[in-house]
Amino acid sequence: MADNLPAKPDTSGANLPSTTHAGSDEPTPRAGWLGEALPASIGGFGVTWATMFRKVLTEEYPEEKRPTAPRYHGRHQLNRHPDGLEKCIGCELCAWACPADAILVEGGNNDDTPADAGGTGRFSPGERFGRVYQINYLRCIFCGLCIEACPTRALTMTNAYELADNNRADLIFTKEQLLAPLQQGMLAPPHAMVDGMEERDYYLGKVNGSTEEQRVSAAAQAANAADTAMTSEGGATR
Ligand code: SF4
Ligand code: SF4
């Protein structure tokens, strides 16, 4: 049986061919460790020397902030229509799409009852609006799935990336922090929709800014809110 086994390879080195000079039977003298290590070391320093003369790429952050790539996924923003009404309709699709469970949305009903009759007002075109909106930046991985899910383009991502803080609570952003600032021609909600316009007209680009009727509506809502606050303060101090 043992005669049929393959022969073991010879690892003793005894049968290795010897190195010779070309055209001679004399063995070649072996270079010492210095002869082998020195060229490698010089090669390594070559990289160092070449790098020393390259242009320095150090970024002086935070004194100098370099712009990001245009499509960089940074902090979120809740957008508005041209008259100032909010685009968010409180549908929660963004929250359901989020793989990190970082979004909390609670919808509310818009209320067209006149302010002096106790109406709480309108914040978006259509039936519902985002009453509570929070994004937890301790969880968010900036994947962008939420903005893909949003049916009204209410939620987008900006290029802002400075989101570090020294406590956890400040990294849960609220609706007030996420809402886009009012641009020229916009009016802070709650207020009525543009007279004669339907919800779909807002998405067809037919609304270009706030109107005089909306300014009256917003002023009435603000006065009503102030009255309500005074009444509740009076009740609390009694
Ligand atoms: S970017 Fe991704 S992780 Fe962050 S809130 Fe949106 S879906 Fe969630
Ligand atoms: S941000 Fe968009 S997806 Fe999220 S609740 Fe508002 S409308 Fe719906």
Which characteristics define this entry?
binds iron/sulfur cluster, alpha+beta, 5 strands, Alpha-Beta Plaits, 238 residues, oxidoreductase
Tell me what the structure shows.
The chain is of the alpha+beta class and 238 residues long. It has a domain at 76-226: Alpha-Beta Plaits (2-Layer Sandwich), CATH 3.30.70.3270. Helices cover 27% and strands 11% of the residues. Strands 2-3-5 form a three-stranded antiparallel beta sheet. A two-stranded antiparallel ribbon has the order 1-4. It is built from six helices and five strands. The longest helix has 26 residues, at 212-237. It has helices at residues 33-52, 93-97, 145-149, 175-178, 199-203, 212-237, and strands at 76-78, 103-109, 128-136, 155-157, 172-174. It starts with 32 loop residues before the first helix and ends with a helix. Residues 16-22 have low confidence and may be disordered. The structure holds iron/sulfur cluster (2 copies). The site of one iron/sulfur cluster has 14 residues, from α2. Its main location: membrane. It catalyses: a quinone + NADH + 5 H(+)(in) = a quinol + NAD(+) + 4 H(+)(out).
